[in-house]
Automatic annotation (TrEMBL):
Pathway: Amino-acid biosynthesis; L-isoleucine biosynthesis; L-isoleucine from 2-oxobutanoate: step 1/4; Amino-acid biosynthesis; L-valine biosynthesis; L-valine from pyruvate: step 1/4. Pfam families: ACT_AHAS_ss, ALS_ss_C. GO terms for molecular function: acetolactate synthase activity; acetolactate synthase regulator activity. GO terms for biological process: isoleucine biosynthetic process; L-valine biosynthetic process. This is Acetolactate synthase small subunit. It catalyses: 2 pyruvate + H(+) = (2S)-2-acetolactate + CO2. The lineage of its organism: Bacteria, Pseudomonadati, Pseudomonadota, Alphaproteobacteria, Rhodobacterales. One of its GO terms (cellular component) is cytosol. PANTHER family: ACETOLACTATE SYNTHASE SMALL SUBUNIT (PTHR30239), ACETOLACTATE SYNTHASE SMALL SUBUNIT 1, CHLOROPLASTIC (PTHR30239:SF0). InterPro entries: Acetalactate_synth_ssu, Acetolactate_synth/TF_NikR_C, Acetolactate_synth_ssu_C, ACT-like_dom_sf, ACT_dom, AHAS_ACT, AHAS_small-like_ACT.
Amino acid sequence: MSALKIKKGSTSHSAYNLRPTFSDVEERHTLAVLVENEPGVLARVIGLFSGRGYNIESLTVAEVDHTGHLSRITIVTVGTPQVIEQIKAQLGRIVSVHEVHDLTVEGPSVERELAMFKVAGQGDKRVEALRLADIFRANVVDSTLESFVFEITGAPDKIDAFADLMRPLGLVEVARTGVAALPRGD
Protein backbone atom coordinates (compact mmCIF):
# COMPACT_ATOMS: atom_id res chain seq x y z
CA MET A 1 0.00 0.00 0.00
CA SER A 2 1.50 3.33 -1.03
CA ALA A 3 1.03 6.52 0.88
CA LEU A 4 0.26 9.82 -0.73
CA LYS A 5 2.70 12.45 0.54
CA ILE A 6 1.46 16.00 0.71
CA LYS A 7 3.36 18.98 2.03
CA LYS A 8 1.86 20.54 5.08
CA GLY A 9 -0.37 23.43 4.08
CA SER A 10 -0.58 22.28 0.46
CA THR A 11 -4.02 21.19 -0.70
CA SER A 12 -3.77 21.84 -4.42
CA HIS A 13 -2.67 18.28 -5.22
CA SER A 14 -4.80 16.49 -2.65
CA ALA A 15 -7.22 13.85 -3.77
CA TYR A 16 -9.60 15.34 -1.21
CA ASN A 17 -9.50 18.89 -2.54
CA LEU A 18 -12.74 18.85 -4.50
CA ARG A 19 -13.39 22.59 -4.41
CA PRO A 20 -12.63 24.46 -7.61
CA THR A 21 -9.78 26.89 -7.30
CA PHE A 22 -10.44 30.43 -8.45
CA SER A 23 -7.94 33.07 -9.37
CA ASP A 24 -8.32 36.69 -8.37
CA VAL A 25 -7.64 37.92 -11.90
CA GLU A 26 -10.60 39.69 -13.45
CA GLU A 27 -11.85 38.31 -16.76
CA ARG A 28 -14.35 39.57 -19.34
CA HIS A 29 -17.35 37.25 -19.78
CA THR A 30 -20.30 37.31 -22.15
CA LEU A 31 -23.49 35.92 -20.63
CA ALA A 32 -26.59 34.98 -22.63
CA VAL A 33 -29.71 34.94 -20.46
CA LEU A 34 -33.05 33.66 -21.79
CA VAL A 35 -35.92 35.27 -19.88
CA GLU A 36 -39.68 35.62 -20.03
CA ASN A 37 -40.68 38.73 -21.95
CA GLU A 38 -42.70 40.43 -19.26
CA PRO A 39 -42.58 43.74 -17.38
CA GLY A 40 -39.97 43.99 -14.63
CA VAL A 41 -37.68 41.13 -15.69
CA LEU A 42 -34.94 43.40 -17.02
CA ALA A 43 -35.16 45.52 -13.87
CA ARG A 44 -34.68 42.42 -11.70
CA VAL A 45 -31.65 41.30 -13.73
CA ILE A 46 -30.09 44.77 -13.64
CA GLY A 47 -30.96 45.09 -9.96
CA LEU A 48 -28.96 41.95 -9.25
CA PHE A 49 -25.87 43.61 -10.77
CA SER A 50 -26.30 47.02 -9.19
CA GLY A 51 -27.30 45.64 -5.79
CA ARG A 52 -24.09 43.64 -5.50
CA GLY A 53 -21.77 46.18 -7.09
CA TYR A 54 -21.14 44.22 -10.31
CA ASN A 55 -20.41 46.26 -13.43
CA ILE A 56 -22.04 45.79 -16.82
CA GLU A 57 -19.86 46.71 -19.81
CA SER A 58 -22.52 45.95 -22.41
CA LEU A 59 -26.21 45.08 -22.32
CA THR A 60 -28.55 44.17 -25.17
CA VAL A 61 -32.10 42.90 -24.95
CA ALA A 62 -34.52 41.74 -27.62
CA GLU A 63 -37.44 39.39 -27.99
CA VAL A 64 -36.28 36.17 -29.65
CA ASP A 65 -39.45 34.03 -29.46
CA HIS A 66 -42.71 35.92 -30.01
CA THR A 67 -44.99 32.93 -29.49
CA GLY A 68 -43.10 31.74 -26.40
CA HIS A 69 -42.78 35.30 -25.05
CA LEU A 70 -39.03 34.92 -24.52
CA SER A 71 -36.32 37.57 -24.69
CA ARG A 72 -32.57 37.22 -24.73
CA ILE A 73 -30.40 39.45 -22.59
CA THR A 74 -26.75 39.54 -23.56
CA ILE A 75 -24.55 40.91 -20.79
CA VAL A 76 -20.82 41.58 -20.94
CA THR A 77 -19.30 41.88 -17.49
CA VAL A 78 -15.91 41.70 -15.82
CA GLY A 79 -15.06 39.86 -12.64
CA THR A 80 -12.98 37.19 -11.04
CA PRO A 81 -14.01 33.61 -11.85
CA GLN A 82 -15.63 33.40 -8.41
CA VAL A 83 -17.68 36.57 -9.02
CA ILE A 84 -18.75 35.33 -12.47
CA GLU A 85 -19.91 32.03 -10.92
CA GLN A 86 -21.88 33.99 -8.29
CA ILE A 87 -23.50 36.13 -11.00
CA LYS A 88 -24.54 33.06 -12.99
CA ALA A 89 -25.94 31.31 -9.91
CA GLN A 90 -27.87 34.40 -8.81
CA LEU A 91 -29.25 34.96 -12.32
CA GLY A 92 -30.41 31.34 -12.39
CA ARG A 93 -32.40 31.87 -9.19
CA ILE A 94 -34.54 34.64 -10.70
CA VAL A 95 -37.95 33.09 -11.39
CA SER A 96 -38.39 34.57 -14.89
CA VAL A 97 -34.95 33.36 -16.05
CA HIS A 98 -35.09 30.18 -18.15
CA GLU A 99 -31.41 29.70 -19.07
CA VAL A 100 -28.03 31.26 -18.30
CA HIS A 101 -25.10 30.57 -20.62
CA ASP A 102 -21.55 31.80 -20.16
CA LEU A 103 -20.47 32.01 -23.80
CA THR A 104 -16.91 32.74 -22.74
CA VAL A 105 -16.40 29.32 -21.16
CA GLU A 106 -18.88 27.17 -23.10
CA GLY A 107 -16.79 27.21 -26.27
CA PRO A 108 -16.12 29.43 -29.24
CA SER A 109 -18.65 32.18 -29.88
CA VAL A 110 -19.21 35.04 -32.29
CA GLU A 111 -19.61 38.57 -30.94
CA ARG A 112 -20.69 41.54 -33.02
CA GLU A 113 -21.64 45.10 -32.32
CA LEU A 114 -23.00 47.94 -34.42
CA ALA A 115 -21.81 51.49 -33.88
CA MET A 116 -22.31 54.88 -35.47
CA PHE A 117 -19.66 57.60 -35.39
CA LYS A 118 -20.15 61.27 -36.18
CA VAL A 119 -16.87 62.74 -37.40
CA ALA A 120 -16.53 66.45 -38.17
CA GLY A 121 -13.62 67.72 -40.20
CA GLN A 122 -12.47 69.44 -43.32
CA GLY A 123 -9.65 69.07 -45.81
CA ASP A 124 -7.06 66.39 -45.13
CA LYS A 125 -8.80 65.17 -41.97
CA ARG A 126 -11.98 64.56 -43.94
CA VAL A 127 -10.09 62.60 -46.61
CA GLU A 128 -8.24 60.57 -43.96
CA ALA A 129 -11.52 59.74 -42.17
CA LEU A 130 -12.96 58.41 -45.44
CA ARG A 131 -9.81 56.40 -46.12
CA LEU A 132 -9.87 54.77 -42.68
CA ALA A 133 -13.59 54.09 -42.97
CA ASP A 134 -12.90 52.22 -46.19
CA ILE A 135 -10.18 50.13 -44.53
CA PHE A 136 -12.52 49.25 -41.64
CA ARG A 137 -15.43 48.62 -44.03
CA ALA A 138 -17.50 51.33 -42.37
CA ASN A 139 -20.39 52.75 -44.38
CA VAL A 140 -21.16 56.44 -44.76
CA VAL A 141 -24.82 56.74 -43.73
CA ASP A 142 -24.96 60.54 -43.63
CA SER A 143 -22.80 63.26 -45.10
CA THR A 144 -22.80 67.03 -44.89
CA LEU A 145 -20.14 69.56 -45.85
CA GLU A 146 -18.94 69.56 -42.23
CA SER A 147 -19.34 65.96 -41.07
CA PHE A 148 -19.91 62.27 -41.76
CA VAL A 149 -21.83 59.63 -39.89
CA PHE A 150 -20.19 56.24 -40.27
CA GLU A 151 -21.85 52.90 -39.53
CA ILE A 152 -19.58 50.00 -38.61
CA THR A 153 -20.19 46.45 -37.43
CA GLY A 154 -17.74 43.97 -35.99
CA ALA A 155 -16.15 42.65 -32.86
CA PRO A 156 -15.93 45.15 -29.98
CA ASP A 157 -12.13 45.39 -30.44
CA LYS A 158 -12.63 46.52 -34.04
CA ILE A 159 -15.14 49.18 -32.93
CA ASP A 160 -12.68 50.40 -30.25
CA ALA A 161 -9.82 50.57 -32.78
CA PHE A 162 -11.95 52.59 -35.22
CA ALA A 163 -12.92 55.02 -32.44
CA ASP A 164 -9.26 55.47 -31.45
CA LEU A 165 -8.34 56.37 -35.03
CA MET A 166 -11.29 58.76 -35.50
CA ARG A 167 -10.64 60.79 -32.30
CA PRO A 168 -7.80 62.90 -33.73
CA LEU A 169 -9.75 63.35 -36.98
CA GLY A 170 -12.71 65.05 -35.30
CA LEU A 171 -14.83 62.41 -33.58
CA VAL A 172 -17.87 64.23 -32.20
CA GLU A 173 -20.27 61.54 -31.04
CA VAL A 174 -20.56 57.74 -30.76
CA ALA A 175 -23.60 55.47 -30.44
CA ARG A 176 -23.07 51.73 -29.83
CA THR A 177 -25.63 48.95 -29.69
CA GLY A 178 -23.79 46.68 -27.31
CA VAL A 179 -22.65 43.13 -27.94
CA ALA A 180 -24.81 40.50 -29.59
CA ALA A 181 -23.30 37.01 -29.33
CA LEU A 182 -24.04 33.42 -30.31
CA PRO A 183 -22.10 30.20 -29.79
CA ARG A 184 -20.35 28.76 -32.85
CA GLY A 185 -21.15 25.38 -34.37
CA ASP A 186 -24.05 23.11 -33.50
